[in-house]
Amino acid sequence: MSDDEADPELLALLRQHLQGKLTLSEDPETGVLESAEYVCDNSIDVALDMRSCKNAAAAIYAQMQQQEYSAAKWSAHELHPKAKDEATVAFIFTVDLLNFSFWSEKPDADRFAVSYRDKRWTGYWSLVAALQRALDEGIPITDSHFWQDEEECTLDVLKHVFRSSTDEEMPLLKERLACLREAGTVLYQKYKCHPVNLISEANGSAAALVNLLARDFRCFRDEHRFEGRRKPIRFLKRAQILVADLWACFEGTSYGAFQDIDKITMFADYRVPQILNSMGCLAYSPPLDAAVRAKREIPQGRSWEMQLRACSIWCVELIRREILKQHPGTKINAVLIDFFLYDTMKKMELEGLESIPHHRTRSIWY
């Protein structure tokens, strides 16, 4: 080929770019781990204790082995769907579209709760229970066509779907409606109205699917500025947990088959930082510790909040590496560690064994 001739491969790439089809590299990265390490290296109010991280790695590994903890735990819960089909994909997409901000300052008896199947559900499970209840009642709450219909999918309908057995409403209902509305529009415009087509676009890559979610859906674009750094810090909590839930539900097959699931990090929320602090892995500066213990709300996007989230991601990554170092060949990733730590913290809460409250931040990101 002469210098004057156009390179057909370059032309094909340019054509894909202009058509909006060139979206993913051959080996995509989410940038979450890089962001977490940067914030951790520059953190002054949250610090990692390396000895405690090593001790935690040993304890977590031993307990997970004892409990035979695996991705199969996801489907074992009575509220999670059991079918392995497109309807389950839509259900998981809806859950993680709305999977944020369930904490309450009210006593347990008065907090937002959902009554379903003769049980009372709070926290994350109140969301899952409410969605299952809505489907039982014939409300197509997991259908993106419904989300787009401004006459059918209204705030009043959402209030009915998420009606509480107490006087407290589910937090951020208007924001949840906005998430549904935006997701319905994007799925209609780009993915033929169903998340299975979004998954297909990722070509079996967990990182690629996370990046697609962050690129196309503002409500999944969990990235923020930190201390004047020009490049945004990426957390992408709900985008990552959506991928993880698909992987766990389908046990690494079908819609949950991702060859790079190990690129998914811990999901930066408020429960895992709580247990990492309880285990001595994370230490807080006196002002931050006092704010957390006093249950003062920490604004989303401020330095304290970003340090808490980022240091938790990096801490779980170090725990994962330590487990693999001590037990080469074991099947472990940040997803399983996160699931295990979350479940353990919730159990400790129910048993009244919390040594410190979780931090309070009200946002759509977690």
Note the topology:
Blueprint: H1 8-18, H2 32-41, E1 46-48, H3 50-67, H4 72-76, H5 86-97, E2 114-116, E3 119-121, H6 124-136, H7 144-148, H8 155-161, H9 173-190, H10 195-201, H11 206-216, E4 223-224, E5 233-234, H12 237-249, H13 271-278, E6 282-284, H14 286-293, H15 303-326, H16 334-350
Enzyme class: hydrolase
Organism: Lasiosphaeria ovina
EC number: 3.2.2.-
Termini Cα gap: 54 Å
Radius of gyration: 21 Å
Task: Kindly estimate the percentage of residues that lie in beta strands according to DSSP.
Answer: under 5%
Main β-sheet, in a few words? 2 strands, antiparallel
H/E element sequence: HHEHHHEEHHHHHHEEHHEHHH
Q: Strands of the largest sheet, in order across it? A: 1-6
The poorly predicted ranges are: 17-23
Class from helix and strand fractions: mainly alpha
Q: DSSP helix count? A: 16
Mean pLDDT: 94
Characterization of this structure:
The structure is a single chain. This protein has about 375 residues and is mainly alpha-helical. The protein is built from 16 helices and six strands. It has helices at about 10-20, 30-40, 50-65, 70-75, 85-95, 125-135, 145-150, 155-160, 175-190, 195-200, 205-215, 235-250, 270-280, 285-295, 305-325, 335-350, and strands at about 45-50, 115, 120, 225, 235, 280-285. The chain has a two-stranded antiparallel ribbon with strand order 1-6. It has a two-stranded antiparallel ribbon with strand order 2-3. A two-stranded antiparallel ribbon has the order 4-5. Helix 11 (about 205-215) crosses helix 12. The longest helix is centred in the last third of the chain and has 24 residues, at about 305-325. Mean pLDDT is about 95; it is low at about 15-25. This is Queuosine 5'-phosphate N-glycosylase/hydrolase. Catalyzes the hydrolysis of queuosine 5'-phosphate, releasing the nucleobase queuine (q). Is required for salvage of queuine from exogenous queuosine (Q) that is imported and then converted to queuosine 5'-phosphate intracellularly. It comes from Lasiosphaeria ovina.
